[in-house]
Amino acid sequence: MTKVGRNNLCPCGSGKKYKRCCMAHDEATARMARANSTSAAGAPAPGAPASPLLCEDCNHDLDDAANAVFALIEAKQFDEAERGAHDVLARFPYVHDGYECLGRLHQAKGDHRQAIECYRKVIAFAVEEPQYYDPEFVDHFQALISHIETQASSG
Protein backbone atom coordinates (compact mmCIF):
# COMPACT_ATOMS: atom_id res chain seq x y z
CA MET A 1 0.00 0.00 0.00
CA THR A 2 1.37 3.44 -0.88
CA LYS A 3 1.94 6.03 1.79
CA VAL A 4 -0.88 8.55 2.13
CA GLY A 5 0.01 12.20 2.69
CA ARG A 6 -1.58 13.69 5.78
CA ASN A 7 -3.40 16.34 3.70
CA ASN A 8 -4.59 13.90 1.02
CA LEU A 9 -8.13 12.55 1.03
CA CYS A 10 -8.45 9.52 3.28
CA PRO A 11 -8.31 6.22 1.37
CA CYS A 12 -11.33 4.94 3.34
CA GLY A 13 -13.55 7.09 1.14
CA SER A 14 -14.96 9.34 3.88
CA GLY A 15 -14.12 12.50 1.93
CA LYS A 16 -12.13 13.85 4.89
CA LYS A 17 -8.43 14.63 4.92
CA TYR A 18 -6.37 11.67 6.07
CA LYS A 19 -5.07 13.58 9.14
CA ARG A 20 -8.67 14.18 10.28
CA CYS A 21 -9.88 10.64 9.63
CA CYS A 22 -7.83 7.42 9.70
CA MET A 23 -4.27 8.67 10.26
CA ALA A 24 -4.28 8.36 14.07
CA HIS A 25 -5.84 4.91 13.83
CA ASP A 26 -3.35 3.79 11.18
CA GLU A 27 -0.44 5.00 13.26
CA ALA A 28 -1.80 3.22 16.34
CA THR A 29 -2.29 0.05 14.30
CA ALA A 30 1.29 0.25 13.04
CA ARG A 31 2.55 0.71 16.63
CA MET A 32 0.50 -2.30 17.78
CA ALA A 33 1.79 -4.39 14.90
CA ARG A 34 5.37 -3.57 15.79
CA ALA A 35 4.69 -4.34 19.46
CA ASN A 36 2.92 -7.61 18.60
CA SER A 37 5.59 -8.77 16.17
CA THR A 38 7.55 -10.21 19.06
CA SER A 39 4.48 -11.86 20.56
CA ALA A 40 1.40 -13.37 18.90
CA ALA A 41 3.02 -13.67 15.43
CA GLY A 42 0.52 -11.69 13.40
CA ALA A 43 -2.61 -12.34 15.46
CA PRO A 44 -4.89 -9.31 15.66
CA ALA A 45 -4.66 -7.33 18.88
CA PRO A 46 -7.44 -7.97 21.40
CA GLY A 47 -10.16 -5.35 21.09
CA ALA A 48 -8.95 -4.27 17.65
CA PRO A 49 -11.64 -2.77 15.40
CA ALA A 50 -13.37 -4.98 12.85
CA SER A 51 -11.11 -3.78 10.07
CA PRO A 52 -7.70 -2.38 10.87
CA LEU A 53 -7.84 -0.65 7.48
CA LEU A 54 -10.64 1.65 8.69
CA CYS A 55 -10.99 4.09 11.57
CA GLU A 56 -13.51 3.38 14.31
CA ASP A 57 -16.17 5.68 12.81
CA CYS A 58 -15.76 4.07 9.39
CA ASN A 59 -16.02 0.60 10.96
CA HIS A 60 -19.32 1.63 12.56
CA ASP A 61 -20.54 3.03 9.23
CA LEU A 62 -19.52 -0.19 7.50
CA ASP A 63 -21.29 -2.36 10.10
CA ASP A 64 -24.46 -0.24 9.86
CA ALA A 65 -24.47 -0.34 6.05
CA ALA A 66 -23.82 -4.10 5.84
CA ASN A 67 -26.42 -4.87 8.52
CA ALA A 68 -28.96 -2.74 6.62
CA VAL A 69 -28.28 -4.82 3.49
CA PHE A 70 -28.70 -8.07 5.42
CA ALA A 71 -32.02 -6.79 6.85
CA LEU A 72 -33.23 -5.93 3.34
CA ILE A 73 -32.27 -9.42 2.15
CA GLU A 74 -34.21 -10.95 5.06
CA ALA A 75 -37.21 -8.81 4.08
CA LYS A 76 -36.81 -10.00 0.47
CA GLN A 77 -36.36 -6.42 -0.72
CA PHE A 78 -33.76 -7.53 -3.23
CA ASP A 79 -33.56 -4.40 -5.40
CA GLU A 80 -32.89 -2.19 -2.37
CA ALA A 81 -30.48 -4.76 -0.97
CA GLU A 82 -28.54 -4.82 -4.23
CA ARG A 83 -28.24 -1.03 -4.27
CA GLY A 84 -27.09 -1.13 -0.65
CA ALA A 85 -24.55 -3.89 -1.32
CA HIS A 86 -23.06 -1.97 -4.25
CA ASP A 87 -22.92 1.12 -2.03
CA VAL A 88 -20.99 -0.85 0.62
CA LEU A 89 -18.63 -2.08 -2.08
CA ALA A 90 -18.09 1.44 -3.45
CA ARG A 91 -17.62 3.09 -0.05
CA PHE A 92 -15.41 0.36 1.44
CA PRO A 93 -13.46 -1.28 -1.41
CA TYR A 94 -10.54 -2.30 0.83
CA VAL A 95 -12.57 -4.79 2.88
CA HIS A 96 -14.54 -7.95 2.06
CA ASP A 97 -17.96 -6.85 3.35
CA GLY A 98 -19.39 -5.58 0.04
CA TYR A 99 -18.75 -8.94 -1.60
CA GLU A 100 -20.21 -10.76 1.39
CA CYS A 101 -23.37 -8.63 1.07
CA LEU A 102 -23.61 -9.39 -2.65
CA GLY A 103 -22.95 -13.08 -2.03
CA ARG A 104 -25.75 -13.31 0.50
CA LEU A 105 -28.06 -11.44 -1.86
CA HIS A 106 -27.32 -13.73 -4.79
CA GLN A 107 -27.66 -16.77 -2.57
CA ALA A 108 -31.07 -15.59 -1.33
CA LYS A 109 -32.16 -15.02 -4.93
CA GLY A 110 -30.98 -18.51 -5.92
CA ASP A 111 -28.23 -17.23 -8.22
CA HIS A 112 -25.67 -19.86 -7.21
CA ARG A 113 -22.98 -18.93 -9.71
CA GLN A 114 -22.94 -15.26 -8.65
CA ALA A 115 -23.03 -16.13 -4.95
CA ILE A 116 -20.04 -18.43 -5.32
CA GLU A 117 -18.13 -15.80 -7.30
CA CYS A 118 -18.73 -13.23 -4.55
CA TYR A 119 -17.73 -15.65 -1.78
CA ARG A 120 -14.52 -16.46 -3.66
CA LYS A 121 -13.75 -12.72 -3.67
CA VAL A 122 -14.35 -12.66 0.10
CA ILE A 123 -11.86 -15.52 0.48
CA ALA A 124 -9.36 -13.64 -1.70
CA PHE A 125 -9.34 -10.77 0.80
CA ALA A 126 -8.45 -13.20 3.59
CA VAL A 127 -5.75 -14.86 1.48
CA GLU A 128 -4.21 -11.51 0.52
CA GLU A 129 -4.27 -10.14 4.10
CA PRO A 130 -4.09 -13.26 6.33
CA GLN A 131 -2.94 -11.26 9.34
CA TYR A 132 -6.43 -9.74 9.61
CA TYR A 133 -8.43 -12.98 9.40
CA ASP A 134 -8.85 -16.12 11.48
CA PRO A 135 -8.34 -19.39 9.56
CA GLU A 136 -11.96 -20.29 10.37
CA PHE A 137 -13.09 -17.31 8.29
CA VAL A 138 -11.87 -18.91 5.07
CA ASP A 139 -13.22 -22.30 6.17
CA HIS A 140 -16.66 -20.77 6.72
CA PHE A 141 -16.85 -19.29 3.22
CA GLN A 142 -15.37 -22.41 1.64
CA ALA A 143 -18.08 -24.45 3.37
CA LEU A 144 -20.72 -22.02 2.07
CA ILE A 145 -19.40 -22.47 -1.46
CA SER A 146 -19.45 -26.26 -1.08
CA HIS A 147 -23.01 -26.14 0.26
CA ILE A 148 -24.18 -23.95 -2.63
CA GLU A 149 -22.46 -26.20 -5.17
CA THR A 150 -24.19 -29.23 -3.63
CA GLN A 151 -27.56 -27.42 -3.76
CA ALA A 152 -26.99 -26.40 -7.37
CA SER A 153 -26.07 -29.90 -8.52
CA SER A 154 -29.01 -31.56 -6.74
CA GLY A 155 -31.58 -28.95 -7.71
Keywords for this structure?
mainly alpha, single chain, 155 residues
Explain how this protein is built.
This protein is an all-alpha fold. Helices cover 63% and strands 0% of the residues. α5 (112-128) packs antiparallel against α6 (135-154). The protein is globular. The termini are far apart. Mean pLDDT is 81; it is low at 36-49.
Our Rg estimate from Cα atoms comes to: 17 Å
What percentage of residues falls in helices of 4 or more residues? 55-70%
**What order do the helices and strands follow?**
HHHHHH
Structural class estimated from helices and strands: mainly alpha
First-to-last CA distance: 44 Å
Largest sheet: none
Let me know the number of strands.
Answer: 0
Give the percentage of residues in beta strands. under 5%
Report the mean per-residue pLDDT as an integer: 81
Shape: globular
Q: Count of DSSP helices?
A: 6
Report low-confidence residues grouped into runs of 5 or more. Answer: 36-49
Would you spell out the secondary-structure blueprint of this structure?
Elements lengths: L22 H14 L19 H19 L3 H14 L5 H13 L2 H17 L6 H20 L1
Helix pairs in contact: 2-3, 2-4, 3-4, 4-5, 5-6
In short:
By secondary structure, this protein is mainly α. It has six helices and no strands.
